[in-house]
């Protein structure tokens, strides 16, 4: 069964790498990407509900934290698992990301590690 993943990151290189990496290692993954929190909310608003969201924390205009809050406020989206992806390596971000999100992954990461962590969450 195809698992739909949405990556939300303002870095086109990360979006490209994650999309091609995940779809390359698992034909059952369909990865879409957007480059901002605003576009994430529009994507979800068009009734394109993914099985999991990979969400960057540090983005211009609407941060990952703000995007996360808006996702969780919506009854139709609140149960979508969210994995924070970030270059932030400070203790506060790590603890908050691990507490609020379903996982917290620091950049850089490997595709096999990302795949393993996604599969663990999707099995829950």
Radius of gyration computed on alpha carbons: 13 Å
Q: What low-confidence regions span 5 or more consecutive residues with pLDDT below 50? A: none
Mean pLDDT rating: 90
Tell me the fraction of residues in β-strands, as a range: 15-25%
Compute the separation of the termini in Å: 16 Å
What letter string, H or E per element, gives the SSE order? EHEHEHEHEH
CATH architect. name:
3-Layer(aba) Sandwich
Judged by helices, strands and strand pairing, the structural class is alpha/beta
Bin the helical content. Answer: 40-55%
Q: In the residues, how many domains can be counted?
A: 1
- What's the overall geometry? globular
Strand order of the largest sheet: 2-1-3-4-5
Would you kindly provide a written description of the structure presented here, covering whatever features stand out?
By secondary structure, the protein is α/β, with parallel strands linked by helices. It has a single domain (3-123), classed as Response regulator (Rossmann fold, 3-Layer(aba) Sandwich). Helices cover 45% and strands 21% of the residues. The protein contains five helices and five strands, in the order βαβαβαβαβα. The protein has helices spanning 12-25, 37-45, 64-73, 91-100, 111-123, and strands spanning 3-8, 29-34, 52-56, 82-86, 103-106. A five-stranded parallel beta sheet has the order 2-1-3-4-5, with helices on both faces. Strand 4, helix 4 (91-100) and strand 5 form a beta-alpha-beta unit. The protein starts with a strand and ends with a helix. The model has no long low-confidence stretch (mean pLDDT 90).
């Amino acid at each position: 069964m195809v698992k739909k993943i949405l990556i939300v990151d303002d870095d086109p290189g990360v979006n490209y790498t994650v999309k091609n990496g995940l779809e390359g290692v698992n034909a059952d993954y369909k990865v879409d990407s957007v480059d901002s929190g605003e576009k994430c909310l529009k994507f979800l608003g068009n009734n394109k509900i993914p099985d999991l969201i990979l969400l960057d924390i540090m983005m211009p205009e609407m941060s990952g934290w703000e995007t996360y809050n808006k996702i969780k406020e919506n009854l139709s989206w609140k149960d979508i698992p969210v994995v924070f992806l970030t270059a932030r390596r400070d203790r506060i971000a790590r603890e908050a990301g691990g507490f609020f999100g379903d996982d917290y992954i620091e950049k850089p990461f490997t595709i096999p590690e990302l795949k393993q962590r996604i599969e663990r969450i999707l099995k829950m």
